[in-house]
Amino acid sequence: MESHLFYLSSNPRPELERAEGIHMWAKTGKRYLDGSSGAMVSNIGHSNPAVLAAMRAQMEKSTFGYRLHFMTEPSERLAAKTAALCPGDLNKVFFVSGGSEAVESTLKLARQYAVAKGEAQRFKVISRTPSYHGSTLGALAVTGYAPLAAPFAPMMHEMPKIPAPRAYLDGLDLEDPATGEHYAAMLEAKIVEEGAQTVLAFIQEPVGGASTGALVPPKGYMEAVREICDKYGVLLIHDEVMSGGGRTGKFWGADHWGAVPDIISISKGFGGGYVPLGAMIARDDMVQTVMDAGGFMHGHTYAGNPLACSAGLAVLDEIERLGLVENAALMGDKLQARLRGLMNRFSFIGDVRGKGLLTAFELVSDRGTMEPLPRELNAFDRLVEHAYAQGLIIYSRRTRGGTSGDHFLVCPPMIIGDEGLDELMEMLEAALVSFA
Ligand code: PLP
How many domains does the chain fold into? Predict the structure, then answer.
C-alpha cells in the first residue's frame, strides 16, 4: 500500500501490531525487544495496566479543558509531584507536549526574565557541539548538530557553541578533575569572548542524549559550570528531555553530581510513550518576576490537558511503585559491564559509556586513535539492520557533530530484568557477529 506519510525511515519497517512490557510485535507476528525504548521514551515499558486504567478513568471525565478556562486536578497534581522531585527551589511547572516545546519554553522564560530584570542586552544562549535540543527553530538554534541546522541558517540567529566534554575522544581522563576544568574553562572563555553582559544562558544535557551517545561529563565539570554561570549572571538550563525521569539511575541526570540548574526541561519518559507530554520547571522567583512584568508570552494549545497529565501522573506513580530508578541504576551497571565485555571480542567497539540505562557504545576503526569507521561502511544503518533481523531495536546516530562516526544507544525500558537483558545481549552479539 502506498504510504502518504513522509517521515518514515528510508529503510522498510514492519507494521506495528501491539506492544507489552519490553516487547513489540509486528503484524507479521515477529517479536522485537525494544532495546531503545523507541527514542528513549517508553521508560516504564509498553501497555502498563495502571497507566492505561488512569487514562481510561480520566477519559470518562474529560479529555480536554483549556488551561485559560479551567484548572484541572490531574495537571495540579502532576505539577506538585514534579516540583517535589526537583532540586533547589525549582518548583514552578509549565506543561508542554514534547521535548522541543519544553526547550523552546526554557529559552523564552530565560529571555523574559532577563528583560524583566532590566537586562535586555542578554540574549545569547551558549550550547555545546554536538548536542540535540530539538527541531523547532529556537531549540535548533542551540542544537550543535550542523547538518540539521544548515538549511535553516538564514532563518535563525546563530548561537555560540563550545565543544561538549568528550574526554574519550580527546584522550583525557574522565576521572581527573583537570579534565573537567579544561572543558568548563571553554565556557568561561566563550562567555568573555561574546561579552558577558550579552550572554543569557548556557544549555546542556547533563548526561548526553542521541547526539553524543550518552556522554558523561568529567569529574568537576558540572560544579565548575555552575560556578562560572553564577560568576557572570548567566542562567543554567539543563535539558533533561532524555536524561530526566530516572533513566540514568537518578531521577534527574544532574542528580549524579548534585548540580542545581535554574531551569529544567523534561519530556520523553515523562509521558512514557502513553501521551505527548513535556514540562519546563523553573525557580519560583524567576517565574514570579516574569509574571509581575506582565506574564509569560508563550504557550501551546494542548499544554497541560487533563488526559496527558493523568497519564504523566500514573507514569510517575509507576516509576515510584516499581522502584524503576533503582532498577535503572542496577540494570544499567549490568548492561554496561556486559557491553564492555564485548570489547574483548569486537575490536571495533571503541567506547562504552553512559549512566544507568542511558547507555551507548561507539564503533571505531582504531581504538587507540578513536578514528571512526569509514563512512562507506555505513555502520550507522547496517548494524541497526542486523539487530532488526535478530528482533532487537537499537538507536543509531552519527557521533562527530553529525558528520561522521557511529554510536548506538542501548536504552531498554527501565522495567527490564535479568532475563530481558540476557535476551537483549544475545541478539546484540549475533548482530555484531553478522556486522563484523
Ligand atoms: N532535547 C533532548 C535532549 C532530546 O533528546 C530531544 C529529542 O531527542 C529533544 C530535546 C527534542 O524532543 P522532541 O523530539 O520531543 O521534540
Answer: 2
